[in-house]
User: Which sequence fits this backbone?
């Protein structure tokens, strides 16, 4: 049916400059795959698209270091990551790459359509130029002294020492990373996307999804809009990327932020050259769900939707362009927070990471998928730990799910010649499974994937209780016919569980089907209905999940710690001119562990018997907290109510004069104490991140 509901699911394109890590799986790919598999089991038409993001300066820098072409780098990591996804059972319909000829054409068409519609303009701006290399220098090809903290190795876009975002012309004593020479400032021409023109349209777009999208997504988008949108450069001087397709643009390519999201459209066209437009044409029967991490929210709620709006606004559509229809905007953006590792932020540069392509050599993919699914960072950062991985494997997959499967199959093998017993399945119990399946389905539809995982394990608990309460090992001695019905019900339950667990652990559930001799499976909504044929032979029985030993987990922890120590020793800390009290250095990863958020002061009062302390009741987003702050000599309580402040949101609770403080506000201090509170420049909403 041409008007049947269909769902386009995209997963953020991983950058082809290194292997994906376990945080990427938790943030994007495992929940996306689970959702897609669930929708397919319901018989819905779904298209699952992803691919490699293969342009940008980090790739050219890696190529320069290895003295190879950028294509060598992207080919290597495209194949590695693609194979890793396949080994993990991530079921993309198509996995493309943005270095393809088709993508070059598609990205250029977006540029030309926006130019034609008046949403791209040229500007002349100062940029650093290396006279010996005879080229303008992209931001990351420049290093110099940070004007904020004095770090001698700040990049042209950011200082990793203090976290300040920079313009390359702000660097003190800049030097080219190509020749080592001091570059000169020269004017150059770049093309800008008129993002500011879409302020009003984007405000309406975001507010139309308030209450439907996750609060993190809405608040981050609102924060950008509240600050006011500015026109953004979409070209840079580089020889690796999508060339700007107009005269006078030699040596310039499209910025990776502009061309990468177009990769979703490209991949769809590469897969379905004659039918791709039905997946991108604005249609009420089409849903577009974007799975991504929170660091990609702005590109999928502000940047790319604005590009689409710019294409859609055309009154006269060019006959030469294939993008000659109204594009679909995202309908859902279930962005996740970050996953930490053993209580610390994941960091490749510090050796604190787990790369799936390596651990897949030691563990079945289902174990990895299940453990991640149980700890998805949907509303706040979560944590992966090896002990937790062991517990989920041993206590749930092995002891609950695997135990039920093995007990039932072994009992049937030993007592019914390995054939499906001739009995009457318990329709009431199976109907109960169907009712619970509706609850799990509701979780998936609301993108509560972690809760869906927890509720799915409840099927196995229900099954074990049924088996234990019925006690067929006793019943078979007195009533073989009744025992046959019990075992038939258990086999039907196991078959239904192979459907319900399939989005999470596809390899194990395929094994169950083989052991049951099932060749055709029912859909999600009909999985609870009996279908096994009495007398049909079961397949060879095998253990679904082997337990993980303590020694194995201890070895993983030791390896992680050893790798981290090696990276720490190899790192050379940057020394800056500072007083002894300020000389302790931290890295950008250390800084990122501090969660700074805006908060609104709801109530304020003095702490009895204290001249300095105030007790504040604050609101961080939807969360209310109490903090104690030493600002009573500077601020009266009544002056603070309604103010927006900045707080450290992940500080461990502490007690001051017997009163618990659940965070800390930021204030400017001199040697006499607080001078002023740190407050946002504009009237920001509470719960926003401060970076």
Assistant:
């Amino acid at each position: 049916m041409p008007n049947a509901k269909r769902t386009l699911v995209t997963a953020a394109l991983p950058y082809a400059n290194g292997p994906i890590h376990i945080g990427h799986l938790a943030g994007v790919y495992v929940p996306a795959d689970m959702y897609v598999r669930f929708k397919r089991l319901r018989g819905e038409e779904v298209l699952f698209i992803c691919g490699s993001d293969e342009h940008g300066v980090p790739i050219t820098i890696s190529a320069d270091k290895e003295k190879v072409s950028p294509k060598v780098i992207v080919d290597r990591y495209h194949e590695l990551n693609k194979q890793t996804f396949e080994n993990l059972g991530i079921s993309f319909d198509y996995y493309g790459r943005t270095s393809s000829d088709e993508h070059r054409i598609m990205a250029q068409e977006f540029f030309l359509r926006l130019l034609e519609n008046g949403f791209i303009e040229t500007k002349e701006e100062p940029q650093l130029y290396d006279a010996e290399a005879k080229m303008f220098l992209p931001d990351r090809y420049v290093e110099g002294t940070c004007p904020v903290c004095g770090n001698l190795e700040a990049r042209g876009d950011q200082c990793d020492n203090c976290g300040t975002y920079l313009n390359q012309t702000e660097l003190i004593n800049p030097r080219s990373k190509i020749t080592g020479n001091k570059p000169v400032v020269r004017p150059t021409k770049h093309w800008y996307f008129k993002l500011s023109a879409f302020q009003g349209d984007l405000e309406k777009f975001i507010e139309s999804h308030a209450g439907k999208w996750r609060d993190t997504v809405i608040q981050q988008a609102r924060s950008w809009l509240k600050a006011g949108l500015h026109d953004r450069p979409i070209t840079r001087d580089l020889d690796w990327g999508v060339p700007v397709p107009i005269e006078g643009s030699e040596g310039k390519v499209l910025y990776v932020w502009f061309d990468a999201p177009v990769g979703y459209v490209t991949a769809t066209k590469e897969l379905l050259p004659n039918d791709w437009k039905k997946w991108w044409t604005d249609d009420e029967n089409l849903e577009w769900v974007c799975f991504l991490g929170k660091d990609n929210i702005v590109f999928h709620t502000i940047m790319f939707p604005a590009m689409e709006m710019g294409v859609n606004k055309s009154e006269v559509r060019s006959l030469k362009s294939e993008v000659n229809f109204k594009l679909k905007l995202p309908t859902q953006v279930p962005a996740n927070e970050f996953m930490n590792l053993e209580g610390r932020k994941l960091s490749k540069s510090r050796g604190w990471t787990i790369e799936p392509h390596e651990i897949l050599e030691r563990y079945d993919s289902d174990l990895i998928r299940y453990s991640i699914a149980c700890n998805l960072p949907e509303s706040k950062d979560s944590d992966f730990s090896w002990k937790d991985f062991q517990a989920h494997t041993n206590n749930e997959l092995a002891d609950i799910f695997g135990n039920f499967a093995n007990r039932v199959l072994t009992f049937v093998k030993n007592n019914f010649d390995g054939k499906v017993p001739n009995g009457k399945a318990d329709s009431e119990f199976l109907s109960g499974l169907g009712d619970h399946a509706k609850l799990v389905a509701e979780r998936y539809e609301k993108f509560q994937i972690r809760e869906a995982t927890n509720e799915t394990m409840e099927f196995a608990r229900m099954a074990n209780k049924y088996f234990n309460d019925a006690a067929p090992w006793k019943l078979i001695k007195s009533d073989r016919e009744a025992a046959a019905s019990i075992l038939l019900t258990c086999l039907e339950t196991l078959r239904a569980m192979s459907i319900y667990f399939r989005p999470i652990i596809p390899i194990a559930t395929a094994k169950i089907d083989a052991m049951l001799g099932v060749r055709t499976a029912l859909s999600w909504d009909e999985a609870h209905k009996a279908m096994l044929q009495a007398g049909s032979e079961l397949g060879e029985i095998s253990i679904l999940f082997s337990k993980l030993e303590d020694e194995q987990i201890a070895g993983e922890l030791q390896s992680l710690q050893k790798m981290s120590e090696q990276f720490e020793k190899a790192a050379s800390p940057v020394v800056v001119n500072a007083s002894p009290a300020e000389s302790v250095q931290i890295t950008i990863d250390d800084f990122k562990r501090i969660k700074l958020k805006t908060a609104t002061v709801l109530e304020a009062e003095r702490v009895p018997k204290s001249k300095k302390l105030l007790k504040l009741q604050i609101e961080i987003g939807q969360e209310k907290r109490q903090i104690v702050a030493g600002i009573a000599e500077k601020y009266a309580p009544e002056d603070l109510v309604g103010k927006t402040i900045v707080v450290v949101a992940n500080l461990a609770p502490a007690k001051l004069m017997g009163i618990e403080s659940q965070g800390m506000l930021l204030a400017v201090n001199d040697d006499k104490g607080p001078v002023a509170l740190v407050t946002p420049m504009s009237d920001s909403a509470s719960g926003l991140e401060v970076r």
Observations:
- Residues 340-586 form a domain with the Isoleucyl-tRNA Synthetase; Domain 1 fold (CATH 1.10.730.10).
